[in-house]
Design goal:
By secondary structure, the protein is an all-alpha fold. It has a single domain, classed as Glycerol uptake facilitator protein (Up-down Bundle), CATH 1.20.1080.10. It is 69% helix and 0% strand. It is globular and about 50 Å long.
Length: 230
C-alpha cells in the first residue's frame, strides 16, 4: 500500500491534469470551432472523457484515482477510506484542480488569475448536478462491485454521455466546480453559482451511497487504493 503522502500527491496530480484537460480543451475548442458552441462542447466532451480513462488507469493502483471530493466522501461513508485520509484527499483534489486551471491559462497565454462570468444557475441546473453526481457514483460503485477493471472506461463513457444529457454539462465534482470558477473561459462557472452546484453534487452522492449498498451489497474490506475515480 503506498503511503498517504504518495496517495495524496497522486490525487493532487491527477486532478490537476483533469482540470488542465477540461479547461484547456475548452479554450482550444472555442478557438477552433468558429463560434459553433455545439462543436466546441463536443470537443470538450471527448477530451474530458478520454483524460478520465487515462488518469484512472494511471493512478488507480496508487490512490484509487478519486479526483473528486464527492467520490472520496462516498468511500468514507462506506468505510473504504479513513476520514483523516479523506480530508487530505479532498484538500489535495481542490488544490490540484486550481493548479490545473492555472496551467491551462499559462499554456494558452491567458491571464493566470481570472473569475468566470458564465452564469450557471436555476432549478434545472441544480437538479442536473444532483442527477449527474448520483449517476456517476452509481456507475463507479456498481461497476466496481463486479468488474473493477472496467471502472476507468465506465467513468469516461458516463461523463461523456452526461455532458450532453444534463442541463449543466455534468460538473459532478466539487473540486472541478471550484476550480472552473477561476477561469473565464468556455468551461467556466461564475463563483456565485458554485455553492448551489456543490450542494447538489453532495446530495446526489449521499443518495447514491445507500442505494448502491442496497443494490450491490455493502463495502468490501476497508481499503484506500482501488480502481475507482470521478
Amino acid at each position: 500500500m503506498p503511503g498517504l503522502a504518495q496517495r495524496a500527491f497522486a490525487e493532487w496530480l491527477g486532478t490537476a491534469f483533469l482540470l488542465a484537460a477540461v479547461v484547456g480543451s475548452g479554450i482550444m475548442a472555442a478557438k477552433l470551432s468558429g463560434g459553433n458552441v455545439a462543436l466546441a462542447l463536443l470537443c470538450n466532451t471527448i477530451a474530458t472523457g478520454a483524460i478520465l480513462v487515462a488518469l484512472i488507469l494511471t493512478f488507480a493502483a496508487m490512490s484509487g484515482a478519486h479526483f473528486n471530493p464527492a467520490v472520496t466522501l462516498a468511500f468514507a461513508l462506506r468505510g473504504e477510506t479513513a476520514w483523516r485520509d479523506a480530508a487530505i484527499y479532498i484538500a489535495a483534489q481542490i488544490s490540484g484542480a486550481i493548479i490545473g486551471v492555472w496551467i491551462a491559462h499559462l499554456m494558452f497565454e491567458l491571464p493566470l488569475l481570472q473569475l468566470s462570468l458564465t452564469q450557471r444557475s436555476g432549478a434545472g441546473q441544480w437538479l442536473a448536478e444532483a442527477v449527474a453526481t448520483f449517476g456517476l457514483l452509481l456507475t463507479i460503485l456498481g461497476v466496481a462491485s463486479r468488474t473493477p477493471a472496467a471502472v476507468p472506461y465506465a467513468v469516461g463513457l458516463y461523463i461523456t454521455s452526461a455532458y450532453w444529457f444534463t442541463a449543466s454539462t455534468s460538473f459532478a465534482n466539487p473540486a472541478v466546480t471550484i476550480a472552473r470558477s477561476l477561469s473565464d473561459t468556455f468551461a467556466g462557472i461564475a463563483p456565485q453559482g458554485v455553492p448551489a452546484f456543490i450542494a447538489a453534487q453532495i446530495a446526489g452522492a449521499l443518495l447514491a451511497v445507500p442505494l448502491a449498498g442496497w443494490l450491490w451489497g455493502g463495502a468490501p474490506a476497508k481499503r484506500d487504493a482501488r480502481p475507482l475515480a470521478s
